[in-house]
Specification:
8 helices
Length: 248
C-alpha cells in the first residue's frame, strides 16, 4: 500500500481557496501601503469597491475556517492539533496587536486573526448541531448589528461583539456580529461537501500553478504575519533611495 503524504489527506479546493485569499490580501495591503506612504491617493480605506474587495477577502478566510473545522474534526474534536493551532493563531493575533500599536495610528484589536481564533472556538458546538439550527443562528448573527445596536456596547470589553453604536476607528475589524455568520455557513458547507477520501484530494491531478496557489494556502498564516513587515521595509527603502513622494 502506498504511503500517503500529508498533502494527499488535504482538500485541494480548500488550500487553493485559502491561497487565492492570501494573495488577494497581499495585493490589498500593497495598495493600502501605497496610500499610507504617500505614493497614491486611492480611496483604499473607505471606497465602495475597495471595501467590497477587503470584505470578500475576509469572508473567504472566515468561510474556510468553518469548512476546515468540519474536515479536520468531523463530529469529534481532535483536541491536541486543535489547541496547538489555536495557540498559534492566538499568538500571531497578539503580535498583530502589538505591532500595529507601535507602527499604525489605529491598533488592530479584533482583526481577521482575532476573529479566526474566536470563531474557531465558538463554531465547535455547531459541528454536531442540526443544520437548520446552524442556519438560523447564522441568520440571527448576521442580522443582529443591522437591527440592534446600543451605546452600552461601545466599551472596550464588548468591542469584539460589534454591536456598538459607533464603529471604532481601525484598519481591520471583523467582530462576532455579523462576521461569525460566515464561519457558520462554512460549517454548513463543510458538512454538505464531504471531505475527499485520502489519496483523492485532487493534488495528484493538480498542475504546477494550482500546486503553487495551494502551497500559499497551506502557509497562509506565515505569509499573513510576514508580508506587511516586508512591504513596510521595502517602502521605507524606496523612500530612503528615491525620497518622500510629493503629496498627491
Amino acid at each position: 500500500m502506498a504511503v500517503l503524504s500529508p498533502r494527499d489527506r488535504r482538500a485541494l479546493w480548500v488550500d487553493v481557496g485559502r491561497g487565492i485569499a492570501i494573495v488577494a490580501m497581499v495585493a490589498y495591503h500593497f495598495s493600502f501601503d501605497l496610500l499610507y506612504f504617500g505614493f497614491v491617493d486611492w480611496n483604499v480605506t473607505s471606497g465602495t469597491y475597495w471595501r467590497a474587495f477587503a470584505e470578500a477577502i475576509a469572508s473567504s478566510f472566515l468561510f474556510l475556517v468553518g469548512v476546515s473545522l468540519v474536515y479536520a474534526h468531523g463530529t469529534r474534536v481532535r483536541w491536541r492539533p486543535f489547541l496547538w493551532r489555536l495557540l498559534l493563531v492566538g499568538g500571531c493575533a497578539a503580535l498583530v496587536t502589538i505591532g500595529t500599536t507601535f507602527a499604525m495610528p489605529a491598533p488592530i484589536y479584533f482583526g481577521i486573526l482575532h476573529a479566526i481564533f474566536t470563531f474557531s472556538v465558538l463554531a465547535l458546538v455547531f459541528l454536531r448541531a442540526p443544520l437548520p439550527i446552524t442556519l438560523v443562528v447564522a441568520a440571527a448573527v448576521f442580522a443582529a448589528p443591522y437591527i440592534f445596536t446600543a451605546p452600552a456596547y461601545d466599551t472596550a470589553l464588548l468591542y469584539p461583539l460589534g454591536l456598538g453604536a459607533t464603529k471604532p476607528f481601525t484598519f481591520d475589524y471583523e467582530p462576532i456580529f455579523p462576521w461569525f455568520s460566515v464561519t457558520l455557513l462554512g460549517v454548513v458547507a463543510g458538512r454538505f461537501i464531504r471531505r475527499p477520501e485520502p489519496g483523492a484530494s485532487g493534488y495528484n491531478m493538480a498542475g504546477p500553478f494550482l500546486r503553487a496557489v495551494a502551497a500559499a494556502g497551506r502557509n497562509s498564516l506565515i505569509i499573513y504575519i510576514a508580508h506587511q513587515p516586508v512591504l513596510f521595509a521595502l517602502f521605507m527603502l524606496a523612500i530612503a533611495v528615491l525620497g518622500q513622494p510629493a503629496p498627491a
